[in-house]
């Protein structure tokens, strides 16, 4: 049965405090630990560090309001060096340490390996099961043929994002030639395949001027790629690049004076706005679950305080991962409903759960554990109230996609315990 939980942020009732709670008399007062498996060194260390700060901030906010059944959240950072094999080793360490939850988001290849390892452990060790909470890995396979009872995705999947993005692009009459540039792993492959398919269906007159996959985290100079984009005559670029692979790309485009519109997944954070600077105005787009000026557009005063408090604590970065807010508060609600941190009852409490997020009602779809939520397409704008990445520009909403429209079917045939 669907459940609705009201966050009531910073007003003293952060989430579903009125829900019935079943508490064992011997309930532990130890912290509820979440293993955070992300790159904390190497090419994507800045991405891992930013996510860690988001999780710690959210945990602190919940803990200040009394925590979860009298227990505090604790985030346990683990450096996977952006390696799938390293991640599965860290997962085993978390299991050995009796950590009940693991979270990750950077790299769908890593997420895929974690799903397999979590399933394998949970089949073999029924007394020490673990849940995987995915806040940013967007390969559609993770909630389709690879779907798992023990995996929940709080970000929008890549096919949901591309459905919304290509709908918007199809309405822009000035778009005639599109260049695709993506990282050479599952996430980039999905964007390459689906973007071509969706654009052809919606605007068959749009020419795919180029389709390039490059090594992930290894390119230091994107100027040869930018030269290819320029030579192709493309007026628009679609990229799912993230971290330095995106900021270096847009910096190279800026240095070359490349005059195109960028349509991105991750253009709003972690060095990209600063890298493109003023050239990004009216040209650097992103599709996200939230951006800072949504607070202004929709009068989200409580969440605006959340965002500004985070910025005060961490002046070097912005609050970027809205899905982490949803994930942490929904996990809190699920634990309280289940009265335990055991994987199966918490998973049963999470699946199908609805939650009154600041941007509107969101739902963890029961069939595949995919979050269904409102989406925003925005573009860099010097008139935005909130600066992005200390760049001098922010983002302005150009399209809002309601939750009921931000969805695609799933092929998931989930095996439940």
Please give a structural write-up.
This protein is of the alpha/beta class and 417 residues long. It folds into 2 domains: 4-156 and 297-372, Rossmann fold; 159-288 and 374-401, Response regulator (Rossmann fold), CATH 3.40.50. The protein has helices spanning 45-64, 84-96, 108-124, 158-170, 186-202, 223-232, 244-255, 272-276, 294-297, 301-313, 322-338, 343-350; strands at 4-5, 32-38, 73-79, 101-104, 131-134, 151-153, 177-183, 207-214, 236-239, 261-264, 284-288, 354-357, 360-364, 371-372, 375-381, 394-401. It has a 7-stranded mixed beta sheet with strand order 8-7-9-10-11-15-16, with helices on both faces. It has a 5-stranded parallel beta sheet with strand order 3-2-4-5-6, sandwiched between helices. A 4-stranded mixed beta sheet has the order 1-12-13-14, covered by helices on one side. β9, α7 and β10 form a beta-alpha-beta unit. α2 runs parallel beside α3 (108-124), α4 (158-170) packs parallel to α5 and α11 (322-338) crosses α12. The longest helix has 20 residues, at 45-64. The radius of gyration is 21 Å and the shape is globular. 52% of the residues are buried. The model is unreliable at 4-26 (pLDDT under 50).
User: Spans of 5+ residues with little confidence (pLDDT < 50)?
Assistant: 4-26
Compute the average pLDDT.
Answer: 93
Strand order of the largest sheet: 8-7-9-10-11-15-16
Instruction: Look up the CATH topology of the largest domain.
Output: Rossmann fold
CATH class of the largest domain: Alpha Beta
What is the number of strand segments?
A: 16
The CATH superfamily of the largest domain bears the name: Response regulator
Organism: Marinobacter nanhaiticus D15-8W
Domain Leucine-binding protein: 31-383
Keywords: Signal
Signal peptide: 1-25
């Amino acid at each position: 049965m669907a459940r609705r939980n009201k966050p009531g942020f910073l007003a003293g009732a952060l989430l579903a405090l009125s829900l019935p709670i079943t508490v064992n008399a011997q309930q532990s007062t130890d912290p509820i630990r979440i293993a955070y498996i992300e790159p904390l060194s190497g090419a994507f260390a800045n991405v891992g560090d930013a996510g860690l700060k988001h999780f710690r901030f959210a945990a602190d906010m919940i803990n200040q309001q009394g925590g979860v059944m009298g227990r505090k959240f604790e985030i346990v950072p683990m450096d996977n060096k952006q390696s799938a094999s390293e991640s599965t080793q860290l997962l085993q360490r978390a299991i050995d340490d009796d950590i009940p939850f693991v979270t990750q988001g950077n790299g769908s290849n890593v997420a895929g390996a974690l799903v397999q390892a979590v399933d394998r452990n949970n089949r073999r060790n029924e007394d020490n099961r673990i849940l995987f909470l995915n806040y940013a890995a967007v390969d559609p396979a993770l909630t389709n043929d690879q779907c798992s009872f023990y995996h929940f995705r709080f970000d929008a999947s890549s096919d949901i994002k591309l459905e919304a993005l290509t709908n918007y692009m199809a309405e822009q009459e000035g778009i005639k030639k599109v260049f695709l540039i993506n990282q050479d792993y599952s996430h980039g492959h999905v964007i390459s395949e689906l973007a071509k398919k969706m654009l052809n269906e919606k605007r068959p007159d749009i020419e795919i001027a180029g389709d390039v996959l490059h090594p992930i985290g290894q390119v230091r100079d994107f100027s040869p790629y930018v030269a290819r984009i320029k030579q192709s005559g493309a007026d628009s670029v679609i990229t799912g690049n993230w971290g330095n692979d995106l900021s270096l790309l847009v910096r190279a485009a800026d240095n070359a004076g490349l005059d195109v519109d960028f349509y991105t997944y991750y253009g709003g954070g972690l060095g990209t706005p600063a890298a493109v600077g003023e050239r990004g105005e009216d040209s650097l787009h992103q599709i996200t679950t939230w951006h800072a000026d949504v607070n202004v557009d929709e009068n989200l005063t409580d969440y605006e305080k959340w965002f500004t408090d985070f910025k005060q604590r961490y002046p070097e970065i912005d609050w970027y991962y809205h899905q982490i807010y949803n994930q942490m508060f929904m996990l809190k609600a699920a634990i309280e409903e289940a009265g335990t941190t055991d994987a199966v009852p918490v998973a049963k409490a999470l699946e199908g759960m609805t939650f009154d997020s600041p941007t509107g009602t969101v739902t963890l779809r029961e069939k595949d554990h995919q979050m269904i939520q409102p989406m925003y397409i925005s573009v860099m704008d010097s008139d935005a109230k909130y600066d992005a990445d200390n760049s001098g520009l922010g983002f302005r909403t150009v399209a809002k996609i309601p939750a009921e429209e931000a969805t695609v079917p799933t092929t998931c045939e989930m095996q439940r315990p």
